[in-house]
Amino acid sequence: MRRLASIRGLRTFCIAAKCLSFKQAAEELYITPSAVSHQVKQLEEHLSLTLFERQTRALALTKVGIQFYKAIQPIMHELDSTISEFTSTQENTVITISMPEFFASELFIPRLSEWTNLHKDFDLQVVTLKPSQTSSKTSDLSIVLSNSLPSAGLIDELFSLSYVPACNQTIYDEYADQGYAGLNQLPLIVHRARPWAWHQWADRAMIDDFNPKQIIELDSMFAIARAAQQGMGLALIPMPIGASWFKEKLLFNIYKDALVTNDRYFLVQHEGSKNVYAMRTISEWIKATYQNIG
Fold first, then answer.
1. Which of 42, 165, 222, 279 has its CA 20 to 30 A from that of 203?
2. Regarding beta strands 187-191 and 214-218, do their DSSP bridges make them parallel or antiparallel, or are they unpaired?
3. What tens digit of pLDDT does each residue of 175-186 get?
4. Where do the HTH lysR-type domain residues begin and end (predicted)?
């Protein structure tokens, strides 16, 4: 019977494939680059496959290397999770998760007690980020807003976003029956990360005479929603994440047209975390709670 590949070699391959650098993989594994190269070479010989293209200053996966990584990486992640589960101590495990501010305030924090009440042996650190900030390198998990698939870690898509025009009740009562008149008479509030969102919305709604009086850019989605609630003007609010503002009648959907985008929230489980069992536990709860909401 043919001998199975070693777990050590498979784990080394996965980390090298993630980093695309034997040197970085060596730093993560606390071994030498030559040891990483040797273990990968042994795996290639065992499989009778060439997994990497070794270039002078670069390392790239071959086509079969990509296929093998996609097949074996989830298995190695599950193995690490199982080992962590059976070797965990009685001390509380600390999990760090980073996420956009608006996701934290509108979705995560309001329902977090559902998880903490069931898992009192885990401590949780939540790091909130502005759109211009990247996920913390020290986080075990990240919730990421992106219009494309994140490039690293175990990725699960949670839900996609659309944007709807909203205002407070005073503006709604005055302009709701006037068609699109309010668009050219009131300030339009938009996120600095999406400065052309109102123009994109107008194109989608097929509004030919779109000529806004004033555009106000803010760098916080919470600030945008609050500004609209205070009567500053009309704002584009992301849905379904902003649903509570409408449910509580703090905002009103003044026009039925929605801007459908490629913006999506993703859950990213970062590789190399020492808290694999705890990370898997909260990841499953996040997916069960937020996947395909709306």
1. 222
2. parallel
3. 999 999 899 999
4. 7-62
**Backbone CA torsion sign across 238, 240, 241, 243:** positive
Reported pTM: 0.65
- The answer to whether the CB of 218 falls within 8 A of the CB of 192 is yes
> At the fourth CATH level, which superfamily is domain 93-158+264-290?
Periplasmic binding protein-like II (3.40.190.10)
State the fold for domain 161-261.
Answer: D-Maltodextrin-Binding Protein; domain 2 (3.40.190)
Rounded distance between C-alpha atoms, residue 192 and residue 218, angstroms: 6
**Domain 7-87: which CATH class?**
mainly alpha
| pLDDT tens digits, one per residue of 28-64 | 888 888 999 999 999 999 999 999 998 877 899 999 9
pLDDT digits over 106-136, tens only?
Answer: 999 999 999 888 888 888 899 998 766 665 5
C-alpha angle 59-40-11 in degrees, rounded to nearest 5: 105
